[in-house]
Specification:
The chain is mainly beta. It contains one helix and nine strands. The protein has one domain: Immunoglobulin-like. Helix content is 3%, strand content 43%. The strands form two sheets. Strands 2, 4, 7, 8 and 9 form a five-stranded mixed beta sheet that branches. It has a four-stranded antiparallel beta sheet with strand order 1-3-6-5, with no helix packed on it. A hairpin with a 4-residue loop joins strand 5 and strand 6. The longest helix is centred in the C-terminal third of the chain and has 4 residues. It is elongated and about 45 Å long. The N terminus and C terminus are likely disordered.
Length: 120
């Protein structure tokens, strides 16, 4: 019998999230931010979102839906008291472990919220 060993790829890919560009929103208008994650090993990637300052999404009237297929969506209708800049951290987990995260002022940020009067 002849046995042949095939070398495994030495390149290991970690799960990743697609970049999330800055967004602007006006008071009273719904902001939707789509998020996509990818696990190269084919595992399930659970997505979450949180304001970087620790404020719960619901405290600002926001919500995040993980569709269970590596995609999700943040929904937020800013109120007058929400005018300002915010950073949202999107994260992906496989088998209970944090595997990837994206957040910064240039990714996942909700910037330049303005009142309808200022937007005119």
């Amino acid at each position: 019998m002849i046995a042949t060993a095939t070398p495994r790829s030495s390149r290991f890919e970690l799960p990743s999230l697609a970049p999330v560009p800055d967004r602007s929103a006006a008071v009273g208008r719904m902001l939707r931010i789509a998020v996509r994650g990818r696990d190269p090993s084919g595992g399930a990637l659970a997505l979450t979102a949180a304001f970087a300052d620790g404020t719960p999404l619901t405290a600002r009237g926001a919500s995040f839906v993980d569709r269970g297929d590596g995609s999700g969506e943040l929904r937020w209708t800013p109120r007058a008291q929400d005018v300002g800049s915010y950073v949202v951290t999107f994260a992906g987990r496989t088998t209970g472990r944090l595997t990837t995260r994206t957040s910064a002022s240039d990714r996942g940020a909700l910037n330049d919220l303005s009142s309808p009067r200022a937007a005119r």
